[in-house]
Design brief:
This protein is an alpha/beta fold. The chain is built from 13 helices and 7 strands.
Length: about 300
């Protein structure tokens, strides 16, 4: 079974990229699967809706998947899964999970349980949808590290990066159920998630690809074509040379509210932040991200 796991920080294009990949034959985009149990089953997260518009527990796909994976007591299973996620696959756990994959330390039983549940959920989705490839936009590098240790999984890790000042500007504007976030907090998370994702690339370079949002937005068809070749995915890029695409219904678990859009859409660069981001926020974001800005090809002074 093939899984394309998206990692990086939020507001970096993972929703639209995942939905485009989900338009390919035999591919299903599940959104941020990490939150299925917290948001969907327990109902304690920021959003409980599937990308199809139904609540996750009433969606025809996810209700069946939960039944298959969680058994007779979904709430009990969900509480256990969420507890193991918090204990073993937060961003700070990435190094430990990679050390286990490399054989430098033993894998705890809780990590084995996380892997078992993740693989079981992927297989349930594949069997319910008939998909051969699953795109998971959870963006937790520690989860990707856990999956690297499964020899029966064809895992590809796609690391999405966007200029932290553009991300800070995006977070300054609330979007439906997504609250505002300060430039300091946004950039702190940006740095942590991207540095942790870089570690995946060093540990498994043959399974890893880094992609800048700016490159994708400027030439979506060409860049997406490169992603398809790297991941060995079927079909042609479902976007025209002019950046136009038509998105159908998806079954994504939480994520950017834009996942609920369907029909014609146009992918184009978003450069409004260059004029709209306050100078103080730009300085904060640049200062906090400075150690890794050049690594991703971003200038100190945009």
């Amino acid at each position: 079974m093939k899984v394309v796991y998206l990692t990086g920080w939020n507001r970096s294009g993972s929703t639209v990229l995942g939905n485009l990949l989900g338009e390919l034959p035999g591919v299903v985009h599940v959104g941020e699967l990490y939150y299925l149990w917290r948001n969907g089953v327990l109902g304690i997260g920021t959003n409980t809706s599937c990308g199809c518009g139904e609540t996750l527990t009433e969606c025809q796909l996810w209700s069946r998947v939960v039944d298959r994976v969680a058994g007779s007591d979904p709430a009990l299973a969900a509480r256990r899964i969420v507890a193991e996620q918090r204990r073993h696959v937060r961003v700070r756990h990435t190094g430990a999970r990679l050390a286990e994959v490399a054989g430098r330390r033993p894998r705890p039983a809780g990590v084995t349980e996380v892997a078992r549940r993740m693989i079981g959920t992927y297989r349930a989705v594949a069997e319910e949808t008939g998909a051969e490839v699953i795109v998971d936009g959870s963006k937790y590098p520690a989860e990707a590290a856990v999956l690297l240790g499964d020899a029966g999984l064809d895992l590809r890790v796609l690391h999405l990066v966007r200029d932290p000042r553009a991300v800070a500007h995006s977070f300054a504007r609330p979007k439906q159920y997504l609250p505002r976030m300060s430039a300091a907090r946004s950039t702190g998370m940006w740095t942590a998630l991207n540095v942790a994702s870089d570690r995946i690339g060093r540990a498994a370079p043959e399974r890893y690809l880094r992609l800048r949002y700016e490159d994708f937005a400027s030439a979506p068809r060409d860049v997406l074509g490169g992603v398809l070749r790297w991941a060995d995915l079927p079909g042609e890029p479902p976007v025209g040379p002019d950046g136009r695409a038509v998105l159908g219904v998806n079954h994504t678990v939480t994520g950017n509210p834009d996942r609920l859009r369907r029909g014609p859409t146009t992918i184009r660069p978003d450069l409004a932040w260059r004029d709209a981001l306050p100078a103080r926020a730009a300085v904060v974001a640049t200062t906090l991200a400075a150690p890794v800005l050049r690594r991703y090809g971003y200038p100190l002074r945009p």
